[in-house]
Amino acid sequence: MRRKIVAGNWKMNTLLPEGEVLVKQLEFLTEELESDVEIIIAPPFTHLAVLGKYIKETKMKIALAAQNCADQEKGAFTGEVSAAMLRNLGCKFVILGHSERREYYAENNESLYKKINLVINEGMQPIFCVGEKLEERQANRHFEVVAQQIKDVLYRLRGVELDNVIVAYEPVWAIGTGMTATSDQAEEMHAYIRRVIGDKFGEHADRIPILYGGSCKPSNASEIFSKSNVDGGLIGGASLDAQDFVAIVKSF
Predict the structure, then answer these.
(1) Dihedral Cα 180, 185, 191, 194, nearest 10 deg
(2) Whole-angstrom distance, CA of residue 107 vs CA of residue 34
C-alpha cells in the first residue's frame, strides 16, 4: 500500500514568530489525530533551525521539509543552501522543481537532477514537482510536457533511488488562480505519470507516492484524494491556516 502524504508549502510567507504560532497550532490539532497520513511542512529557510528544534523536542507528528536546495555540495556559492545544511537542521524532505522555481528562477531539469542526487545522498527525500502551463494544456501538450520532465530527471536515477522520491503533479494553471483541476483530470494525469515511470522502472512505479499540487482545500480534498492514483497533496495557501490544513489531512 502506498504512503498517504499531505505536505504544506508555506512559500515566502510568515515571519518566524508567526511560523512558531502556526506550528504550535498544528501541534495541538494533530496531537490526538489517529491517522496514517504523513504530515509535512515546508517553512521558509529562516524558520528551519527553530522549527526543526521544536519539532524534535516535542516529538510532533510532523516532518520538516525545505522548499529548495543548491545544486552543489558546498563551496563559493553565495546565497545558496546545501542539502547537507538542510539535513543538519532536521529536514527529511526537500521540494524540488516547483513551478514557481522553474518560471521565476529559470530552474532546469539538469540542475534538478543534481539537486535530487544531493538530497538522496544526504538521506532525505525529494518532492519532485512536474506539471504543465495553461497554454500547454490548451494545446493538448500536457502529457508530453509532463513526460519530458520525468524522463529528463527521474529516468536518470536507479530504481532504488526512485524509491526515495515523491512526485507532486502541479497543474500550473491551477496554482494561485482559484482554478482547480477536476478530480478526474487529476486522476488522469496521476495515472499517466505512474505509467511513464513504470515504462522505465516497472514495479517501482506502483510504490511511488504522487501528490496533487493544485489548489487543494478542505472543500475539494476528499474528492481528489478518493482517486486511486492520488496519494495526497502538496498544499499551498491552505497550509497557512492550521485548521484548514488539518482538515485536508482528515480528508483521507
Answers:
(1) -40
(2) 39
pLDDT digits 0-9 by tens, 221-235: 999 999 999 999 999
Quickly tell me which residue has 487543494 as its cell. 216
Residue with cell 493544485: 214
Catalytic residue from among 170, 187, 190, 204: 170
What are the structural domains, with CATH classification, of the chain? Answer: 4-249 (3.20.20.70)
Catalytic residue among 38, 47, 98, 132: 98
For the stretch 17-69, pLDDT in tens is 999 999 999 999 998 898 899 999 999 999 999 999 999 999 999 999 999 99
3-state SS, residue 91: strand
For the question of residue 204 being annotated catalytic, the response is no
Q: Active-site residue 170, yes or no? A: yes
Q: Tell me if 216 sits within 8 A of 132, measured CB to CB.
A: no
Helix axes 218-225, 183-201, angle to 10 degrees: 40
Cell of 154: 527521474
